[in-house]
Amino acid sequence: MNTKKILFVSYTAVLGGGELCLLDFAQAYRDSSEVLLLTDGALKNRLEDLEVKVKVLQASRSLADVKVSSGLASLKSIGDLWRLGKQIAQKSKDFDLIHANNQKGFVVSAIARLFGGAPVVWHLHDILTADIFSPTNRRIAVTLANWFATRVIVNSQATGEAFIAAGGKRQLLRTVYNGFSGEKFDCIDDRQTTLREELGIPRDRNLIGMFSRLSYWKGQHILLEAASTLPDVHVLLVGDALFGEAEYTEKLKNIAAQESLQGRVHWLGFRQDIPQLMKACDAIAHCSTAPEPFGRVIVEAQLAKRPAIATIGGGTNEIIENRITGLLIPPNDPRLLAEAMREVFSNRDFTSQMVETAYGQAKTKFSIPSVCMAFEMAIAGI
Ligand code: UDP
Q1: Fewer beta carbons within 10 Å, N or C terminal of the chain?
Q2: What CA–CA distance (Å, rounded) separates 54 from 68?
């Protein structure tokens, strides 16, 4: 049993990959720990369903509007950060450590440390590169980490390397992969036909799924462009624009409306029944246009025994060995993605061998017990 008393702090409560990862660790430590959310949202209900103690310490509107990249601009928001930091410092007195699950959560936890709060572990789920984070953002994050974090847990070695390249101290780092319950996939019938029937997808057509929030860097447009050249392929888009990327959604709808794709793109929005939906697909695509910090969807595809086609770079390379446990392709290349799709749909022997190998790896390397053990080691001695 895990006995460390952890105060988990998360700024965001929408269900992105980092928050889904938090669910597993918070559940593992639920007997001794508590989650503090700085905004209200779906994560709260999911934690409560798992019987994790959770409290919302509402951050003010001005803090919600702050992008760390803007240099923590307004004075009002700095006042809010201070106020929250003090509150968290006070609360953390009953805990062994604060686990900060995202960047704003880490900033307030670092301030809490200034006010005598418990030691802070920052769980970094992002690759701190220029593609996504401004220089100011990276400087603030890394400086605070070097000064105030006792450990920095990263979700892949790639995330760790980017942290060091941005000036972070190597000795702070511990790598802990995301964990997954294989049983959630094993208990689902291998052939889910209901969804295909509901969507009117003929039996002899292939269905490729993408399970990501709708966002340019996730690259749904690359999949649609690839599919437009393969008339027998249907596309399932699962996910929503979680962080207000409405313009990108519009762009995707326009691409899907073009004649070559008509009737072949199916939108499901945000869903929780990922194992069922994956089992209804013939392949899963992961088309990130910039290196993916981890890539939960790839492991889920492997557990569902569906071939994963993913873009090279970042944490993806730690999950897929090319042509052994999935297919790796360069980013931003619809032509090569279409070729990879053609191969997994036509070369059935190769595909079934690959999915079996991937399944075996995913079940051991990314099991909940093995990542919880890595987590326990990462916080040992604090
Ligand atoms: N996901 C989900 N519902 C959706 C779309 C995605 O639960 O409608 C899940 C998906 O199964 C995966 C996570 O969201 O577990 C996304 O994690 P990933 O590492 O792929 O990307 P991130 O959102 O962290 O950038």
Answers
A1: N
A2: 25
Nearest CA to 301 among 234, 211, 364? 211
Query: Which of 274, 287, 318, 371 to mutate for ligand 1's pocket (most ligand atoms within 8 Å of CB)?
Result: 274
Q: Is the pTM of this model over 0.90?
A: yes
pLDDT of residue 244: 75
Domain 6-179+367-379 in CATH 3.40.50.2000? The answer is yes
Residues with CB under 6 A from ligand 1: 15-18, 20, 211-213, 238-239, 270-272, 274, 294-297, 300
From the CA of 89, how far away is ligand 1's center (Å)? 31
Task: Give residue-wise pLDDT tens across range 185-202.
Answer: 999 998 888 999 999 999
pLDDT for 69? 45
| CA of 113 relative to ligand 1 center, distance in Å | 31
Q: Which is the CATH superfamily of the domain at 183-365?
A: Glycogen Phosphorylase B; (3.40.50.2000)
Amino acid at 255: I
Confidence of residue 71 (pLDDT cuts 50, 70, 90): very low
Enter the tokens of residue 379. 């916080």
CA-nearest of 98, 6, 49 to 372 is 6
